[in-house]
Fold this sequence. Notes:
Blueprint lengths: L4 E4 L14 E10 L2 E6 L5 E5 L3 E5 L23 E6 L3 H4 L1 E9 L4 E11 L2 E10 L11 E6 L5 E5 L18 E5 L17 E4 L3 E7 L5 E6 L5 E6 L35 E4 L4 E6 L12 E5 L4 E8 L2 E8 L7 E6 L5 E5 L4 E8 L1
Parallel strand pairs: 1-17
Antiparallel strand pairs: 2-24, 3-4, 4-5, 6-7, 7-8, 8-9, 10-11, 11-12, 12-13, 14-15, 15-16, 16-17, 18-19, 19-20, 20-21, 22-23, 23-24
Amino acid sequence: MKxxxxxxxxxxxxxxxxxxxxxxxxxxxxxLANPWSLAFLPDQSMLVTELGxxxxxxxxxxxxxxxxxxVPTVYFSGQGGLFDVLLHPRFEQNQLIYxxxxxxGEKDNATAIVRARLxxxxxxxxxxxxxxxxxxxxxxxYGGRMVFMADGTLLxxxxxxxxxxxxxQDIDSGLGKTMRLNDDGSPARGNPFPESPYVWSYGHRSxxxxxxxVDGTVWQHEHGPRxxxxxxxxxxxxxxxxxxxxxxxxxxxxxxxxxxxxPGMEQPLVYWVPSIAPSxxxxxxxxxxxxxxxxxxxxxxxGQELRRIDMQEQEVVGQESLLEDRGDRIRDVRTGPDGAIYxxxxxxxxxxxxxxxx
Length: 358
């Protein structure tokens, strides 16, 4: 039986805790309004999305620019708004960026992707290349994380819409899935379900962390209900169980499913009871912190921390809580091109932080 890691009330720390003394925090920028995602530009500036619908550039000195023009109108309600920002793999040649966001209105909204050219401080030739179907009438559980794979295809996470959780098990629904697209929004060749050509994996609840390792491994995490937050290794065609199996309870305390395991459904690499509310995910493959090479870093909203998952040969050997003394809800975490770890704190105002060695 594969070893699973779970935290039940008390944090299980890795044996090595000395890393807490090996780094310091720098504040790169402040005054952000509900920042959600971060991308690094070739000129050492950064793009940050704000949930309310603003896309801003932060220069190398930490100066926050005015909102970039021509960003699509977003449905800013509940958990809805502007989500991820992602550069095309050939950005230096084509200046293309991708934005995921809540599209529509109260009665019909869905996670969507816009592709546009970034020209100075405006977007040009913006076009919506994908929208999850069906739409929904809830402002919750959108997913919205994106990442490019080595073959140039694009992965997108979608949430179950909260009250539509059974749709996560329905291959014909776009809710509760990982989607795989070409860079123009068309379905990618080789996806596992010909009848649902975008679906890559299914059985997800509210996935807000997604990263591809150098070796091609896809890691994803998702919110459970009351307990049962998960980190999973995502592979095409697999069923990750929600809501047929779960380690969590409904918010009322009622049982969602009597099962935490079932044949044909994947078990998480690690799960948390109670929930830490994970948001943002990176795998550290930089050079500034060689002792962390290959480890996963998970932002935690409810947990108000940055969780390091100590990995060896794709298995968990320990965990460590970082930044818990700050009391910040962590919305996103990224590895920068300089090897530093960048963190966005949630809320208004939010901050962009950088972890660097002492």
